[in-house]
Amino acid sequence: MKIDAIVLRELHMELLRPFETSFGVTKNRRILLAEVHSEGLIGWGECTATERPYFSEETTDTAWQMLTQELGPMLMADPPEHGGDCPRIFRRVRGNHMAKATLENAIWDLEAQREGIPLGYLLGGVMRRIPTGVSLGIRPTIAELMEDIARELAAGYQRIKLKCKPGWDVDVLEKVRHRWPDIRLSCDANSAYRMRDVDHLTQLDAFDLMMIEQPLWHDDFYYHSVLQKRLQTPICLDESIRNRRDALAAIETESCGVINVKLGRVGGFSEAIAVHNAAQERGTPVWCGGMLESGIGRSHNVALSTLQNFSLPGDVSASARYWAEDIVEPEITVTPQGEIEVPDTPGRGYEVRQDLVERLTVRKVKVKALELVG
Questions:
Q1: Active site includes 163?
Q2: Pair (105, 178) in one structural domain
């Protein structure tokens, strides 16, 4: 694959409404995009790192540095033939999974365009419609949260996930379950609890949850396995799963019953497929998580979610839930049945609104090749 240019951009996009988790409140997103130009085609990647090092060690600024000074130049100097070649090219750089995924996913997009097939098909996907749910942040009042849930259920979403933390959990879930006794419901703690909270967490078994996501430390398997023995509700691991080896360790230690696969967290499509396959071989369901992506990152999530073991509704919801105006067309939409119809056009299947991207861009750089040594 001949790479003619790599262009990196930072965009500023304002969320329609604030999104609160146990980490804090997000109102605006600094989004990094990569354009990889190859023989008249452009592959697009999006970095899912956040502005502060709370979800992971990476941030918007550390990713920008790695992309401009290390990973981008490496890719220019050693062009891949396939998306699956990227882990080899980037292997000298430790960690920095979200930065790596930015470029790797763009290469997979390019490859699908070059082959004239949908990206999901190239990944090995089989589904033409994917089930989807929503992730709802912490709200100032339970009444406001109830309004949010009612609106999303009316839109057809198949699963409601509520962010939770100490002080915003049992009472909230009790009221939600009382009003909607039959909906598919889960909660996500983003590592907000500790082992001293075990007795408290066992109260969540009363609410017939699909799962409780990442209740304990972001890098832990052992204590999650201890907690899982106390809970009837399946634990879902998110932050703890960085690669296939982590997925195998979590499954074999019975630390979880479900795995959330996020493209950025695991370093791109190659490792995401490996995590999916390892879980599928061992009968552990997976689903695709979200990171407040623009339509570019969201379209990558749509493609990933076509793999067979993505059997639970993910967080790949409609563009209009987050943005007054998304940077892809058509915008990503959800059917009244709570599904996303997977595009059948080559690549990601959603055109980039380059005029809008240009208008939202606050910094832009063209990557130069790096002379590799050693």
A1: yes
A2: no
